Every structure is written in structure tokens, then in C-alpha cells.
What we know:
The protein is mainly beta.
Amino acid sequence: MSRTGKRAWAVAVLVTGLALGGLPQEASAQLFDATPMLRPPADVPSVPSGPVPNLSPPGQSAAPKGPMLQSLPPAPGPAHAAPAAPPGQGTLALSARFGKDLPLINGGLHWRVYRIEQNGAPKLVKEEKAPAPAFSFAPGSYVVSVAFGLASATKAVQVRAESVKEVFEIAAGGLRIEGRVGDARIPHGQISFELYQGSQFEPGDKRAMATSIMTGDIVLVPEGTYHIVSNYGDANSTVRSDIRVQAGKLTDTTINHRAAIITLKLVNERGGEARANTQWSVLTPGGDVIKESIGAFPRVILAEGEYRAIARNDNRTYEGAFRVVNGVDGEVEVVAR
């Protein structure tokens, strides 16, 4: 192997995707066999590990926010036909599959090809989002990186003055999450999710792989175990759950919250008009502050349990105790006396 080829091999070994473990899965459905592929946005990065060159475009983060994927396209994009290589060049044809003996991935791929310079540094020479692109290159050592959502694969390739085919294996699947209170589905916009690598019970600090995931978003991740942090509202209704994602499958999971939506009112008498410009604090029986707000009718989503409401209005303070029952939305009146 030439000196440049050894450099390419070293870079490919170091630039790896996310490797994750596993626990039992809650629910899954066969996906990605003959269906259109999920399409990730252009700003989803591959995540290199260790002190290696960053092969992602500048400004990208390892924990993207918002929807990780767009909706399913009506049909997979067409594969690029292999170009006729100019004299003295070779053709590099690329494709990816979910694993050995698993179907080809027919969309949602982001290809990047790097040439290894004399100093060993990778230089981006081609970028493509077709499912099976084909390129013409001068013979030499290259590194090919392909991202599929948050999953990725990288390898060194040697281009010769002939056609070369490379098939990448990306053991990845999709994850789609929703929240419920009892039998009622939590509306879009009231709940969001964070995704972490590994089980919640594993030791060590964890950094979110993706945040602000909304109901119905589909996140593409490497096969393995993850834990989800589900936030219903912005107070204390938080639930953690482990999930396993399998290669080539879409995993649907439902997070169940025990909570209710409470509207607070400061009134002069029961059933009276709410007083404006009221400052509110919601506390646990032990005195921990759960939520603070200002207004005549503040709404707060609270986990099932006992609470105290503190109302401050016109330089006076009032309070009242109340209980939140799972799935029972309602009003809590604090009487100003």
C-alpha cells in the first residue's frame, strides 16, 4: 500500500459513526423494504469520534434541534447513472444498505468524498444526496463518508482507471415518538422529546443527541438502545423511557404522562372574576418552586400530586392548596381573603 493509501485508511478508521447498545424494543414496524425512504435535512451531521479531522461542514452541531427529518417523499429520488469516465480516470459507484442481506437504502443519504492530500489532510471533492451516485475521479486514495440521519459510515477507497463499486452498510432505523395522558394524545406543540445514547440506567454523564423533537418527527439513528426524556409542558411533567431501535425498522413509541392542565385564578369570592396582574408561584408541599408566572389566568401543566399556589396581588399574598388528578384538567381558585 502506498504512503497516501495508508493515510486514507487511517482517516477512514478514525472517522466513525455512532456505535450504540441495546435493550428490548417497545414497538416496531417493518420499514424501508419497498417504501420511499425518509429524507433527513441537509444540516444533520455525521458525528466523528476522537481527535480526528471534522469531515462535516463548518457550523454543524452534534445535537441538532428541531425536526430531524422531513416527511416521507412521494417516491425515492432517481439514482445517478454511471458517467462515462474521461480517459485516465476511474468510476466510483456508491450505494448503501441497512446491513448484510438487508435492503438497499433508497433515499435520505448524504455522500461526501474526500481526497487525501500529500500532508495527509482530507479535502472535500464531491458531495451528493442521490441514493446511488457515481463519480469519475483520477486514480488515487479517497475517503468516502455517508450520513443517514444521525447514522453514518466511512471507509477508504482506492480509485483505479476502471469502474469500482462500493456498498456501505449502515445499521440504522427510524424512531417516532408521541405522548399521551390516559387515552388522550397530547397535542403537537405541548410536548417535546430529547434523545440520549444508551440506557438511562447506565452510569456517566450523557449529552443529548437530538433535542426539541416534536410529535410525529422521525429521527434516523444507528441501531441500538436510547433513552427518551419527554417534557409535557414546561413545569414538572417529565418522563424518562428506554427504547431499542432495530436496523431497517421504524420504531413507534408512546410516552405516558400522569398530569393535567391547571388554570389558576385569584378571586374575591368563589366563582368570581379573576384579578389581573397577579404573580403566581406553584410549590410542592415541601416548598420547592415548580412554576412561576404572571397573569389573571395562567395555565400550567403539572404532574399528578399535591401543590400549593401562592398569589401576590396589590402588595398582598394569598395561598391555597390543591391536588392534580391524572387527566383531569380544571381551574384552581385562590380566594383573596
